[in-house]
Amino acid sequence: MLKEIDRNDPQALREYLDSRTPEINADVLVKVTEILKDVKENGDAACRKYTKQFDGVDVEEFRVGAKELDEAIAKCDPAFCDAMERAKKNIEFFHKAQIQQSYLQQKEYGIYLGQRVIPLAGVGIYVPGGRAQYPSSVLMNAIPAKVAGVKRIVMVTPPDKEGHIHPNIAFAARLAGVTDIYKIGGAQAVAALAYGTESIPSVDKIVGPGNIFVAAAKKLVYGKVDIDMIAGPSEILVVADEGADPICVSADLLSQAEHDPMASAILLTTSRTLLDQVNVELQKQTAVLPKKEIIEASLRDYGKSIVCDSIPQCIEFANAIAPEHLELQVREPMTWLNSVTNAGSVFLGYDTCESIGDYFGGTNHVLPTGGTARFSSALGVDAFIKKSSFLHYSREAVNAYGEYIIKMAKEEHLDAHANAARVRMDNK
């Protein structure tokens, strides 16, 4: 069942929001710092040591060659490959609309200025291994980079117990345009991407989800390289009116609760009847799902509901929570879209389940969590570019405007700045 929060109790809502943002444990940060330092100093030798220690595999060659990649892909289910190829087209279609153009502006006296949009030279994509395999995340991370124009897309992923790459991950990497693949995971993989080793080249940015050690490593190497975000547990918030189907609402809430015991599933509704029906349906659907124990823990600790007076009040609460995934299961959902200011991605209507966005729809599923949708965005083409401005002043322009530059520089007591303009003026 979803624990109900009184709509008139802002303190209870605040406590819930604060409970969703755990800090990385200090002991984890210490251990990860040691790994980063070791890899920085000892390169491949340190990477092999930690791969043996944490993954139980001796890896002599980290790089996945063409033959190994072909052999892995040959094991893939053709139906899965077909679904991935169709998803790729949708993801490319969406992200191509995000491409930005450089621009040039011209003014009087031969002045011109503008901005260049430049793709990053190389990015690293972390892909988790272990029991969970997410080839869809390869598409979501690599395709925007490819669309942005990144030439070198490096993927790291832990090897399996036999020292091989997972077939579905291999297929996704080739499909998405990954240029280099390395069988390495954990904090040591992040360190290798940030600092470079004898066999693994450094990159400019690291993206992709991972466990707490990967998250800590990304946090610590930020500044040496850029990162996408520090992802927290998954979240879904459903705003539903009386017309919503309790079976569908429950299924969507459970689709995120099965991720992690710390995942949060929230229902904001104008209908107490719907809430009662959803609570019954949650129990029925949970009982037959393979990840029943994870779901029960998630709903017990982070499953919440609020019965609101109106849809605007629901959206007001949703904006305060700033969820990763927001579903508007209401009539005429586009009517309310502009009222939503804080959400990673919005799913409109009774039939647009969040799973469509996770896999197939085309929008990106790498989204801000833990309330960070208040100030950050979904992963996209923008994440893989940088912008550089340029400026040209003719001697005539310096003569016309130099006195203003000099005045501003002298007010800040930066006489050398003032002099750089003065020496170019005819009346100097």
Would you kindly provide a written description of the structure presented here, covering whatever features stand out?
Helix content is 46%, strand content 16%. With 428 residues, it is α/β, with parallel strands linked by helices. It folds into three domains: 3-20 and 233-361, Nitrogenase molybdenum iron protein domain (Rossmann fold), CATH 3.40.50.1980; 26-99 and 119-227, Rossmann fold (3-Layer(aba) Sandwich); 393-422, no CATH class. The strands form three sheets. A six-stranded parallel beta sheet has the order 1-11-10-9-12-13, sandwiched between helices. A five-stranded parallel beta sheet has the order 6-5-4-7-8, sandwiched between helices. The chain has a three-stranded antiparallel beta sheet with strand order 2-3-14, with no helix packed on it. Helix 2 packs across helix 8, helix 3 (66-73) crosses helix 6 and helix 15 (395-411) packs antiparallel against helix 16 (415-422). The longest helix is centred in the first third of the chain and has 30 residues, at 26-55.
